[in-house]
Model the fold of this input.
Amino acid sequence: MKKNNITLIGMPGAGKSTVGVLLAKRLGYSFVDVDIVIQEQEKRLLKEIIADEGMDGFLEVENRVNAGLDVERSVIAPGGSVIYGKEAMEHLKDIGVVVYLKLSYRALERRLGDLVDRGVALKEGMTLRDLYNERKVYYEKYADITIDEAGKTVGRIVDELRAIMEARISEEKEG
Done:
């Protein structure tokens, strides 16, 4: 399989879907929202999977679905917890470039508002700050490219990513 996909990772609310849809349009790629793929394959909502199987069960499903993605020329937006799935992350790195949409904790807090409404599942006793600090390490570990969103509009982020990806594509053609 060619390495011609782009996977956007980051916290819930970082803009993976928003940036992903616009980037896919600008590059002429498909857009894959993995949460929707999971719901279609499992024939139930994410919150139902979590309610039925617990967070660990959900993470197993998420890992399996992401590790089995078979797409080309796609911008992939997995859930923020994809980074806990070793097989998923190895597969996503094998099939393309992994981009971390980095958001400050303060910006994250502003964007998320009510966590329950946003579908963010926190382990018992865990705060949003705890989750942010825990995941940040994984996002940095797996990212091929990090885009710091501080002070940038969605349009600017998409333009920056498009320029990076077009440069990589032309390097590959020349090399």
Notes: The two ends are 19 Å apart (CA to CA). The chain has one domain: 5-165. The beta strands are 5-9, 30-33, 74-77, 96-102, 145-148. DSSP finds eight helices and five strands in the chain.
